């Protein structure tokens, strides 16, 4: 009887130990591992980050001044805009090397893929145009004349409207993708850098670096309905420069990179109120969520690193050293 009771007690302790170890391993290991590609503007490289180990696993040599970067819809290729080479380079994810080049205009910076992944719209900063590229044919289909120094690019979830922001004209241009014509010009604050649609297409947000605001635009009325401003104790207003924007799929929470303020603002995307500021690396620029939205990775240009933000906890949990002057980032499943 006593021997049986001892054996039962041993089994219970063993089960508890195994359960505890399993729980610890689940907490210590990300639920899914993803791959991030980071463009290093001054290093002329792309850093590959494994989100399982939170480490750089490969550094890929690319052209001069890489900035805008994005995976293709199937995750097999990565496009990177190499501004000083006036082209879009194509990285094969399996080979982890540049395998092709797409034609663009002078000094491509940011670009957007249409929802089907068939067309690439590229902002060419030096000639005030948006180039349209057929991805499969690797051919340029045409150009759209926009404002001075175009940069930000966003496409509506249904693919019908393309937004381009022009830094010097201080406008968000609404482009009909069917006719390839500008249908509206919305004035925003100084030096608009980035545009982001809500998934339900109810709003498009445009960051203004020098203006220090994010303009909330109604895409149907094509007018600014609200402006988000930022105040950080101890920092001068001119040091707070909104650039990259990331928004959760449910449209409830947004994150805004504030450049040399070295902060990411957490914003209630319904009320448009800032709820928190997260201290990150120096000169935070662009960002990307992991597909499960557990983490948000942001590039810090001056400190040459990437900060990892736990989205639910809203705190920075890791810093990863990358190449020189990290600028853009894109993430897909391995």
From TrEMBL:
Highest taxon, organism lineage: Bacteria
Segment forming the signal sequence: 1-33
Entry keyword Ribonucleoprotein: no
Pfam families found in the cross-reference section: Lactonase
Entry keywords, A to Z: Signal
Protein's UniProt name: YVTN family beta-propeller repeat protein
Organism per entry: Bradyrhizobium australiense
